[in-house]
Structure formats: structure tokens, C-alpha cells
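#lab-general

N.A. 3:47 PM
ok so I finally got the sequence cleaned up, no stray characters, all 160 residues accounted for. can someone with queue access submit it? mine expired

B.Y. 3:52 PM
send it over

N.A. 3:53 PM
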Amino acid sequence: MGLDILEIISVALVSSIKLVWGGVPMALSFGFSILETIFVTSSGGIIGVLAFVALSDFLVKRFKKRAKKRKLEKTSQNSVKIFTRKNKLIVRIKTRFGLIGIAFLTPILFSIPLGSFLAIRYFKSKQKVISYMFASVLFWSFSTSLLLNPLINAIRTYFL
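B.Y. 4:20 PM
back already:
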């Protein structure tokens, strides 16, 4: 069965944001083979990582520049860092899991945009962030394709 170009594009676009819970099930439900699913979802995820790492890097640099400017303006006030629940959670995730943990959890728990932002925000090396995110996208695309294929086929045969 030939693949429709619109199906390929839509799976790649969904995979660039939500790989495991969006792109892989969508590709398998369209009838893609396992290899086609892995290729299209991985490609979409990798494109998403590249796009969102670049965007996140731009945003983080802009936020830091803005914060520095504000800090200079507020030198007369006594600024004390307030540790909120959210700040503590972010610090705990960063220290406990590190870059490898964030990259590994991104496709399954976070979305690719959020995982890219967190990785760029807390780790300096863009090359490492991109490498680990690529490895994570490939791992999750491959493993979820293999795990979900029998389930999607069973649902397709039962309902169709």
C-alpha cells in the first residue's frame, strides 16, 4: 500500500511535538509498516528537536538578557531568591536525572518542545542536548513502534 504524502507530513508534524502518544499510534493506525513508522516518526521527532532547541536557545538567551537588565534597574531593592514549590521541583529533576534523564523522559512524559526548553535552560552544551535528544527520539520511536504494532493491528482487525 502506497503512503499518502499528507499522512506522512501529518505524522511527522505530530511526532515533532508528541512522539510516543501522538506520532507512533497515528502512523500505525494509518497502516504504516514498522520500518515506515520508525523512519517517519524519528524524522519528525529529530526535526522537532532541532527546531525547538534553536527556539529554546533563542528564548533562554533573551530571558537572561532581560533579567540582567531588570536586575540592574532594581539594584536599590533587596532581592532575595524565593524558593517556590515549582523552583524546588525543577532543581530536584535537574540534580536527580541530569541531561540524560531529561532527554530520556522527554518523548514519554514531556513534549519535545518542553523537554528541549528544559535541557537548553539547564545545560550549556547544545551539542550534548541535541545528541541525547536524538538518541532518545530514536529509542522511543523504535520501542513504541514495536510495542504498539500488535495492539493497533488487533484493534484494526476487531473493529474493521
